[in-house]
Task: structure prediction
Amino acid sequence: MKYIKILILFFILFASSTLPALAQYVVKGVVQDRETLEPLSGATISVTKSNTFTLSDSKGQYVLNATINFDSIDIKLIGYKAQTIYAGDKSQNYTISLQLDNTVNTVEVTALKPGQPVTTLTGAELNRSSGLSLQDAINNVPGVNMQSRTPWGGQHIIIRGYYPSADNGRTDGENFNGLGYQLFINNIPVTDAIGNTVMDDIDFSTLGRVDIFKGPNPLYGSYVAGAVNLYTQKPVPNQTSINEQVIAGSYGLIRSNTSLEASDGKTDIWINYGHQSYGGFRDHDSSKKDFATFAADFHSGSKNTVSTYFSYNHSVEQLPGEIDSADFYARKPKIDSNYVLNNSRVDIASFRAGVTDKYQFNNHFGNQTTLFVTGYNLLQYFAHGFNLNNDINTGGRTAFTYEGGSDALAISGVLGAAFERSNQNAQGNFIPPFVQPPFHQTTAPNSPSDAQNTAMASSAFTQWTFSLPTRLSLTVGASMNFNQFTTQNLLYKGATASTIYLDNPVLTRTFTPTINPDICLTKVFNNHVSVYASISEGYAPPTISQMTNTAGKVDSALNPERAMQCEIGTRGSLGPDNRFNYQLALYDLDINNRLIQETANGISSYVNAGEQRNLGAELSLSYNIIDNKTGFITLLRPWITYAYTNAVYVDFKNHIKSSKGGDTVNADYSGKKVAAVAPNVFNIGIDAVTKPGFYLSLTYNYTDKAPVTFDNYHYMSAFSLLNAKIGFKKQLGNHFSLDVFAGANNLLGSTYYSFIFVGQNIAELGQGTDSYIKGGGGDGYILPAPYGATFYGGAALKYKF
Result:
């Protein structure tokens, strides 16, 4: 019997070697996501107008064999736009970059991926309004709230009720900049090693995609609130074009973008220059911005892609100051005279440069490595002084990937490390409130500062997914995080601000490394519905300013905040052609070691004394009533998002210590609602597109009342916003395409805020002239948005070579 098997095998091998090959024409390559360059599996690659096809594998690779010659192939994948490319040269590999289909809810694209869910905003969602502000789009995501100090600057993001400021935050910029999450643009960190995220200099109009991770994620440092990844636009494959866009709007808004994009299958280049100016709806509220961006992808075959990114940005935002509630609800465009007299503004010039190399060694192993250098010069004048920060950030990130296993147990994983170093020279001068501006270096009395700060943040991370039988997936991961801060006071004690004294000691704080695990179990039903449960641990290190008390002493005992998030949810698509898409998440986010400011002998400092618990529910629904490429109406899709957040201080007490060692509880905020977090936020919208080219977007937002103070005695009232945009997009001949649009925000004329400061009580926030409050020793706490409807209109003309 053994010899018979050998003879049969020999015959098969001989026959196969002598028969003529039926597949005479072969084309191969890789299919990837256009923005992230991640490989896409399950894509259908077929000969145009033929039944000959193949599918891309787990690495995105494909080999298409045909018995007849062909010139073009079609590529299709659910959730992405179909594409046809010329493939006449069979000797080269074709890298095919697919773009997310804006007519398909992004929940469907991510529904069946195991691990922590990710919310993706595509180009259509980013451009439901003017496209110039991320705030207009990201606030439609349940559980996410973005506020802006000015109409075009000073942004920070609150994710799932994690508001980092545990005092009035106005001495260290917590109310200005983002804390508690990491932000990236094209794999380059915007968040520095100190933990601050400054977004004044980001050109949001150039974005093509935004990914939002809610809660700790080991791949991005396990920060308490999560991570936000921004990706710039990519060129249309195999096309060279130049595009000019102009937008004009209320209060002197003028924006222009000039872009050049080129793609030939091997090289993708995108260059953009944007200029924006704004007059402001209040006095001393104007801004000017200039952005220059260069991005390129170089494909050296199916295994290797090198991506580069460079940007230079200059932004100047005037600060008119905050107001109190009486003037706000009276709809007065009032300003703070101290801000104006001191010509308060934020002037930032920055650059970002990075290179990413992505290499696929074989069918199982790959690597992606990014090296970057960024820097900015930030000059800020405020009501009681001025600051000048110079920052240089360098670092890198590498991640090795693996995919393998069998049909019974498939394994995929990531193992990597990230490092960032920030060097900061922080100079400033605080002048007491009783001194009348304008201020100068010699203004007295004053409190000068000049510190050389260094921060190093690094992490080792891993995450593995085990695909088990019965469509059950287990994802486990962890990150080990390292943080170190050093600071040196460059001023000689008691001398003038101009005296440099380098013999002061360098104070160093090295934090004990934290290990933050993550586990998620996912079950998939009928290819379109999944349920999951996850537990993840996160942390948020204190900033250098939080470690330094008001007397200049560094606290070496301060520890990072720690958090545990438990989440269950389901997501997927239902109904005919899977037109109904949904996502539901329930979570419990517990945060310990919260940083609270306390006072002893007139000196304020932070201590780890607080606890906070955020319970929430998030829901997203959409239904494609019409999704027909050949009909007059090609798309008609209503959508709804809703977020309920019950964020409460569990153990929040403010202490006052005396020189004799006595410890008195000054205030107990336990059981109070977390400041700046609205319990209910509801969004509803509708998107419509017609075959002739007309399109429409309507968005309605309801934001519940939110407490301003920890004691919950003062709230911001609820408000509603109605936004609309109409446009016409048309291909004009073989070379030109035109997009003309007009829109309006706040059509209901609601009174709403763009930013609020928070504090322990209203007396430390209010100006003292508000008829609704008693006392007040601050500068106000409300930054109003325009009180009436604002309008904009624009046009984009593209010429394709």
Notes: The longest helix spans residues 2-18. The chain is about 5% helix and 55% strand. The CA atoms of residues 642 and 682 lie 5 Å apart. The first strand starts at residue 25 and ends at 33.
